[in-house]
Specification:
The protein is mostly helical. It contains seven helices and no strands.
Length: 152
C-alpha cells in the first residue's frame, strides 16, 4: 500500500539533487532552499509510508480506512507514530528531524534563509538510504537517474 509515497519520495530526492547541482553551477542561493524543501518532503513521504504500512498502526485495514496524518513535522511523526509502533528510523534522521522539519516552511517563506550545502548533501544521503532500506529495488532506478542527470 501507498507505493506512490515511495515514488514521491524518489522524486523529492531527485529534485533536491537537481536543485543542489544547479546551485553549484549558478550560485543562486534560493536553489539550496528548493533542495531543502524537496528533501524534507521526501522524508515526510518515507516516514508516512512506513507508518501507513505498519501492521500495528493500520490494523490490517484497507488503504481507504487508514487514518491519515496531517502533519509535516518529522519529529512528531517519529515520536508519535514511529516509536510507539516500533518503526525503526536511522539515528541521523531522529537527531536532525527538527532541523529538516524547519526546512519545509523556512526554505519557502523566510527571507534570507539559507541551508549549508554539506547539510543538504547529508540529508540527501540519509533519505536515499532510507528509501533503499524500505525498497532495495529503487537502487537501480536511483542509479540510472543519477547517471542520466549527472547527479550526486
Amino acid at each position: 500500500m501507498y507505493e506512490y509515497y515511495l515514488t514521491n519520495a524518489l522524486v523529492g530526492i531527485i529534485n533536491a539533487k537537481q536543485a543542489l547541482k544547479n546551485y553549484n553551477l549558478t550560485k543562486i542561493r534560493n536553489l539550496k532552499n528548493t533542495s531543502a524543501y524537496n528533501i524534507q518532503q521526501a522524508f515526510e513521504y518515507l516516514l508516512k509510508y512506513l507508518i501507513y504500512n505498519n501492521k500495528t498502526y493500520n490494523c490490517n485495514k484497507v488503504e481507504a480506512d487508514i487514518k491519515q496524518i496531517y502533519s509535516h513535522n518529522l519529529d512528531l511523526l517519529i515520536k508519535n507514530y514511529c516509536v510507539p509502533n516500533n518503526i525503526k528510523v536511522s539515528k541521523e534522521l531522529v537527531l536532525n528531524a527538527k532541523l529538516y522539519t524547519a526546512w519545509e516552511a523556512e526554505s519557502r517563506y523566510r527571507i534570507g534563509f539559507s541551508v549549508r550545502t554539506n547539510s543538504l548533501v547529508k540529508a540527501i544521503r540519509i533519505a536515499e538510504a532510507l528509501l533503499l532500506q524500505i525498497k532495495p529495488i529503487y537502487k537501480a532506478k536511483l542509479s540510472s537517474v543519477n547517471k542520466r542527470l549527472d547527479l550526486l
